[in-house]
Design goal:
CATH architecture of the largest domain: 3-Layer(bab) Sandwich
CATH superfamily of the largest domain: minor pseudopilin epsh domain
Order of helices and strands: HHHHEEEEEEEE
Distance between the termini: 84 Å
CATH topology of the largest domain: minor pseudopilin epsh fold
Shape: elongated
Structural class: alpha+beta
Radius of gyration: 37 Å
Strand content: 15-25%
Number of domains: 2
Low-confidence stretches: 25-36
Oligomer: single chain
CATH class of the largest domain: Alpha Beta
Strand order of the largest sheet: 3-2-1-5
Largest sheet: 4 strands, antiparallel
């Protein structure tokens, strides 16, 4: 036995004797102390360095650590695709919700002000884009002269720039570049469907406006390609 081990055991024996004397237990001619449970707990916690109890609580072995890390890596690999799909669906929901909000606002503005209101794709919040791509954003303005373009005298009610994630593509029906509401709340002649798709050209959802001007959203029930 090394000198360190001998010294350690001596310290342990002295500590145990001191505890027994203090609590007046297990010594010849002395009555047991009512604090014996506290002594037992103290003795259970006081273990010499290098004892089997200390070695059992020392930590993980290398094999245990490698096994744990392997299991965590497998679980992360299983969960990652599902989590990515969840994030993608949340982004699509946010884009459709924003579109529905601005369409409803445009309809209310046209009715309450008794003027034509136009919602169109816009990248700068000043001009309407000529294409069907709404990914850069959109703007809502009151079309005083009916030319469907924001002029100097037209009031711009709301602008939404970069409303969607760069991982999504938002596009309207071919040939329908903007949504116009008449003073009676109808959108006859400009009713459209705006599709929200991912970079893999998969349809995530659509916002549909009927002739009466009422918008609604829907999601595909099965994998569907994004409309051209």
């Amino acid at each position: 036995m090394g000198e360190f081990a001998k010294a350690n055991r001596g310290v342990y024996a002295a500590r145990v004797h001191d505890l027994r004397r203090r609590f007046r237990v297990l010594l010849p001619g002395l009555a047991p102390s009512p604090d014996y449970p506290a002594l037992a707990s103290a003795l259970a916690c006081f273990q010499p360095i290098g004892s089997p109890a200390m070695r059992r609580n020392a930590g993980f072995t290398l094999i245990e650590l490698v096994t744990t890390m392997s299991v965590m890596a497998i679980l992360a690999g299983i969960a990652a695709p599902s989590f990515a799909g969840f994030i993608e669906r949340q982004r699509a929901s946010a884009a459709m919700s924003s579109l529905l909000t601005h369409m409803s606002l445009a309809r209310v503005a046209a009715i309450t002000r008794n003027r034509r209101a136009v919602l169109c794709p816009s990248a700068d919040g000043v001009h309407c884009e000529l294409g069907t791509d709404w990914s850069q954003g959109w703007m809502l303005f009151m079309d005083e002269d009916g030319n469907r373009m924001p002029d100097g005298s037209d009031e711009i009610v709301r602008v939404e720039l970069e409303p969607t994630s760069r991982h999504l593509r938002v596009a309207s029906t071919s040939g329908r570049q903007q949504l116009r509401y008449l003073p009676d709340g109808r959108s006859a002649g400009t009713n459209l469907t705006i599709s929200v798709c991912n970079k893999r050209n998969e349809l995530l959802g659509q916002v549909i406006v009927n002739n009466m001007g009422r918008p609604r959203s829907e999601r595909p029930r099965m994998p569907t390609a994004c409309p051209a």
